[in-house]
């Protein structure tokens, strides 16, 4: 099957920015009370089970989840991001992979975190992604999503983290995301929408928890 162009472009963009992205965002979590709170709540809900961070980038969230006591591994589309993650967290497992077709057995994980990693998937492709989430989760497994809030329209990125790139991103409607999750058998259990904070944000941010 031919790879969708948005997957190819997203991989190339993150391969280009991997090292600078990791350096610039390395300490971001320390300054975000809400990020830590939502990750902490998720950790309490899935404690004792295996967790996959999908779209893990340089592994900063994977590492934080591990520090909370979770059995967690990371998957990312970008080989360069995976290489950075492995160097930063040699004690953890990181693999290359696509959320459209996860190389994971059915009902093999108790939790999934997709931390700003669904934002490069066109909204009409999200049902495929969420169906994969539902497939690999155990019954009762949990999902935590984070994403920028908007109206599902495409935003083209030509420069990021000091590099010229070409990639699309989507600011998503929490209601629409929740509806697509439900269609895949994943029911929303909690939601938080907050105003933008700091230099990296200019739109509201959403966190959404769901259960298989």
Short description:
By secondary structure, the chain is of the alpha/beta class. 35% of the residues lie in helices and 30% in strands. The longest helix has 21 residues, at 5-25.
For the biggest sheet, the summary is:
7 strands, mixed
The count of helical stretches stands at 6
Q: Per CATH, which architecture?
A: 3-Layer(aba) Sandwich
Instruction: Indicate the structural class.
Output: alpha/beta
- According to CATH, what is the topology? Rossmann fold
CATH superfamily: Vaccinia Virus protein VP39
What is the molecular shape? globular
Question: Explain this structure to me?
Answer:
There is one protein chain. With 212 residues, the chain is α/β, with parallel strands linked by helices. The chain is 35% helix and 30% strand. It contains 6 helices and 9 strands, in the order ααβαβαββαβββαββ. The strands form 2 sheets. A 7-stranded mixed β-sheet has the order 3-2-1-4-5-9-8, with helices on both faces.
